[in-house]
Write a structure and sequence with these properties.
InterPro entries: Aminopeptidase_N-like_N, Aminopeptidase_N-like_N_sf, Peptidase_M1, Peptidase_M1_aminopeptidases, Peptidase_M1_dom, Peptidase_M4/M1_CTD_sf. Keywords: Hydrolase, Metal-binding, Metalloprotease, Protease, Signal, Zinc. This protein is 23% helix and 26% strand. With 497 residues, it is of the alpha+beta class. The chain has a domain of 196 residues: Sandwich (Immunoglobulin-like), CATH 2.60.40.1730. It has an eight-stranded mixed β-sheet, with no helix packed on it. A three-stranded antiparallel β-sheet has the order 3-7-6, with no helix packed on it. It has a two-stranded antiparallel sheet with strand order 9-10. The protein is globular. The chain starts with 5 loop residues before the first helix and ends in a 36-residue tail after the last helix. Bound molecules: zinc ion (ZN). The site of zinc ion has 5 residues, from helix 5 and helix 6.
Length: 497
């Protein structure tokens, strides 16, 4: 053996170790949990318990916000790396269980190298210091710039364009938001207020959810807003967030919520969350969104002439119904989206029939008349992606008719035949089935017609009630009358809601 100096030997050993690590660990790659419509969403190996997200907003909605996201999770399998979904922000530092960690980005994943191998079944705390950029294609979702600030529109696949996380509704978690903004602005988020702290010329607003929530339902509003309080059924605190200048003008609409909620409770049981309200954003979106406890509405819905009162009422009921269907009971995979929209559209149409003599049957027939054309223009035709393997099935209440609760009742294993549809059978309907998380690294980006359809329909085309639809996406926006077939009908797939 030739003589090798101690220094050279150390250098060779270091090189050998680096080579060994490089040979052992493949290069970072984006992963998913096997959603056939969004193969890259979600990540295997851990279950998020809570998010604590701090945003610092300097008053300009064209500039990236400084942010810190802390994720409390539990590993479900041994991990050497942790993948998070994240895009539209720069990451400056990551800690895993208190130790500084290396990281890399690939496509829309942030891949964190664990300082040491992490076994299955242990707590995992990840802190990411990053920015959150509100600039980007509105069609892709995420931050929504308004005339006076920001709001969020994250459905279906855009929460990770605001904050890092496990961006799939199969992994719901508790959320705490801490928003620091200039003192003249008002910040509101999902859940209930925890504290408001003034420091110099800024105020930090803290909100926390009392129920688990899907990332796509996160909502943060920052603007020159008024918060309007009232009381709903059983003393439920209601709060609406509206442009301050519009408070009086919008009151005739806002005051409808208690009666609408009482009507919904007569249909399906008690409201499932800690609060509710409308967030009226001063921007034009062409859609509404059922963000949990604080549904997003575009201001023109209430201020543009031409929308009959019954129509606006039914849209409000649609978003309210989603709090039960889509939020409290939430999809296990995005293929289950029809469960959200089917129920919300059903109660929307029922409400219009009972309160405004708008026959449900006529609206449904109009929708069916148009559905073939919609599917031909942008719907899924044939999907070939692996199915998730369900290991247990848990539901939240009885299918269709009775109240839905976050507390779940085991209802048995799904049959293989039904697994692909998410249908568990009468009385066992829901969609909270936990898959055995799979490492999915698709060979190609999710560009199937199915994925395109969901994006177009959830982002831009559920707006076809008075905006664009798949067949007219490249054309000028169109504003059909609300009484036009497909313009206002439940199940018509009209305006995105
Ligand atoms: Zn909807």
């Amino acid at each position: 053996m030739p003589f090798i100096s101690r220094r050279l030997r150390a250098a060779l050993l270091a090189t050998a170790s680096a080579t060994l690590v490089a040979a052992t660990l493949p290069s970072p790659e984006p992963l998913g949990i096997g959603d056939r419509l969004f193969p890259y969403l979600g990540n295997p190996g851990y279950d998020v318990l809570s998010y604590d997200i701090s945003f610092t907003y300097d008053g300009r909605n064209t500039e990236p916000l400084d942010a810190v996201t802390t994720i409390e999770a539990r590993t479900t399998e041994p991990l050497e790396r942790v993948n998070l979904d994240f895009a539209r922000g720069k990451v400056s530092a990551v800690e895993v269980n208190g130790l500084t960690s290396d990281f890399a980005t690939t496509r829309e994943d942030l891949v964190v190298q664990a300082p040491t191998a992490i076994p299955a079944g242990v707590p995992l705390r990840i802190t990411v210091r990053h920015t959150s950029d509100p600039n980007g294609s509105r069609a892709e979702g995420g931050w929504l710039r308004t005339s006076d600030g920001l709001a969020m529109a994250n459905q279906a696949d855009a929460a990770h364009r605001v904050f890092p996380g496990n961006d799939h509704p199969a992994d719901k978690a508790y959320f705490t938001f801490r928003i620091t903004a200039p003192e003249k602005l008002t910040a509101v988020a999902n859940g209930l207020p925890v504290s408001t702290q003034r420091r110099g010329a800024t105020t930090t607003w803290t909100y926390r959810t009392e129920h688990p929530m899907a990332t796509e339902l996160a909502q943060v509003s920052i603007g020159t807003s008024a918060i309007v309080h009232r009381t709903g059924p059983h003393g439920l605190p209601l709060r609406d967030v509206v442009p301050a200048a519009d408070r009086a003008r919008l009151e005739p609409w806002l005051k409808k919520t208690p009666d609408q909620m009482a009507w919904m409770e007569r249909q399906v049981g008690r409201y499932p969350f800690e609060t509710y309200g409308l967030l009226v954003a001063d921007t034009s979106t062409g859609f509404e969104l059922e963000t949990q406890t604080l549904s997003l509405f575009e201001r023109p819905l209430f201020t543009e002439p031409g929308y009959p009162e019954w129509y606006v009422d039914s849209v409000m009921v649609h978003e309210l119904a989603h709090q039960w269907f889509g939020n409290s009971v939430s999809p296990q995979s995005w293929s289950d989206l029809w469960l959200n929209e089917g129920h919300a559209s059903w109660y929307e149409a029922r409400y219009a029939e009972e309160h405004a003599d708008q026959p449900l049957e006529r609206r449904m027939r109009q929708a069916y008349t148009r559905s073939d054309a919609w599917r031909a223009a942008g719907g899924p035709r044939h999907i070939r992606t692996p199915r998730s393997r369900a290991t247990r099935s848990v539901c939240s209440g009885r299918w269709c008719t009775t109240a839905v609760r976050s507390s779940s009742t085991p209802c048995g294993r799904r049959s293989a035949r039904r697994r692909s549809t998410g249908w568990n059978g009468p009385g066992c309907g829901a969609t909270r089935t936990s898959p055995r998380r799979r490492r999915t690294s698709p060979a190609s980006p999710p560009t199937s017609r199915a994925a395109t359809w969901v994006r177009s329909s959830r982002r831009g085309c559920m707006a076809r009630r008075h905006r664009r639809c798949p067949g007219t996406r490249t054309g000028a926006a169109r504003s059909p009358r609300p009484d036009e077939p497909g313009a206002g009908g439940a199940g018509s797939g009209g305006r995105r809601r």
